[in-house]
Design a protein that fits this description.
135 residues; alpha+beta; 2 domains; 3-stranded antiparallel beta sheet; flat
Length: 135
């Protein structure tokens, strides 16, 4: 925030920092302090900007939500998958958005793969023998 506050990656990093919070904190006291210092600088930067805009989110050309410089919006679910999404914005200021998507393939089969981390789970009986669970 001190060297390049207008870098387009700043909002992405702020979103990741927000997502890293678990149960209202970031872990250690030092992590909490550093996160709050960074977010405070970001907030001061945003307040210094002239913001006066309104906008709509369109799904296949039909409005599904609106927002403005004071109230954001979060969408989840059925109105978005498989459709063309667009933002319409009028006024002064910068609008930031964050998109994330996830799901399971229609086949229900997910390819297992390890990326630098390997975790396996097995269930054992009282004597340590492997249990086979059937649904």
């Amino acid at each position: 925030m001190e060297t390049n506050p207008e870098n387009p990656l700043v909002p992405v990093l702020v979103k990741r920092l927000e997502g890293a919070m678990k149960e209202g904190q970031w872990g250690t006291t030092q992590n909490n302090a550093q996160a709050l210092i960074g977010l405070g600088k970001y907030t001061r930067f945003l307040k210094a900007q002239t913001q006066n805009f309104t906008g709509r989110i369109l799904s296949d050309g039909k409005p599904v939500a609106s927002f403005d410089d004071k109230n954001g919006v979060s969408l989840k679910g059925a109105e978005l998958p498989g459709k063309d999404i667009a933002l319409e914005v009028e006024g002064a200021g910068t609008v930031y958005y964050y998109w994330t998507s996830g799901g399971v393939p229609a086949s229900g089969k997910v390819e297992e793969k390890d990326s630098g981390l390997k975790a396996r789970r097995s269930f054992l009986g009282l004597q340590g023998s492997r249990l086979i669970l059937r649904s």
